[in-house]
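agent: user wants the structure for Formyl transferase N-terminal domain-containing protein from Flavimaribacter sediminis. delegating to structure tool.
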Amino acid sequence: MPVAIRKVRRVFPENRRGSNKGSMKFLIVGDGRYMSARATTGLIKRGHEIAEIWTTAPKSFERHPSFIKRLLLPADYDARTVIERHGIRVRNISGVKKRDLVALLDQCSPADALLCTGSHVIFPLELLDRFPDRAFNLHPAMLPDYRGPGPIESLVLHGKADEFGGITLHRLSEGIDEGEIVGQRRLPFSDYGTRLSWSLAFARASGELVENELDALLRGVGASVPQEPGSGSYIAAKDIELSVRQDWPFDRAVDHMRKAPLVQYRTFLTLNDGGKYIAIIGTPRSVAPPTGEPAVIGRWAVVVDLADRRVRFFRDNSVRRMLRRLRSHVDVAAFRWRLIAKPEPEN
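agent: tool returned. relaying tokens verbatim.
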């Protein structure tokens, strides 16, 4: 049964600034990564202002990407360049309790609207009430599927990254990721192949959603679509397993090691012996039936019992990390080529 589209007629005349009809002043909550930077510049390009940025990852705003990435990427994707160019204040809210966020809002520069661009902050309803019809979130999955934290990891580990890979701009509501959908872009993982390439695609799509669907909504010519109650799925943080455990069967460990490096910079093996973590890489090898003996940790590999076999995992090392860094530069160069082949529209 199709869902009716609810037109948003309110234009917020009290927030019009000069001739820029319908422009807003935004409070942004983000992590300082590519999506956060690109969404911020998208708002500015459309004539909106930034009151300030809240973050739980302040170091992301303190450093530029690597020199090569700075050469290849547009400035719109560099959070530090964005805040310096536009004189935006960044406020560190790590350690601030949920109940104190409303009081913190009273200390900030007044804002008309809220945009979350990659953060695990859960906003109290009292804070959302300060932004009636003007609180939004960018969620990296095709809602209503894969609500909750860590959708990127969940999509890849569940083998659903092509089916539900994408980004959704939606209204913030009391239910997590349950607000009305403003716009979406489908981004199948297989079109990009690595986490970095995918993240850059998310960033580009975020800018498009902010500059088009969100801006139109705020000016009274857009629409939002309610999510059907009970539809989709929710994946809790506790259900996202990113480390291999000794109680797993061998086949599950092989499948995890095939998928996890696509979305994690480092993958770990959790040992039963005190919960020690060891960084591992590559395809595990079966060497014998379980022996009941403790793990043997060498310089290049670790041999350990899993649920049904004794297995050799290769350890991560500096050479492999260097190769990953080189691969990241290749990914950025490929993204730059995509921008050249199909430029972002001028505003």
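agent: one observation worth passing along. Residues 6-235 form a domain with the Rossmann fold fold (CATH 3.40.50.170).
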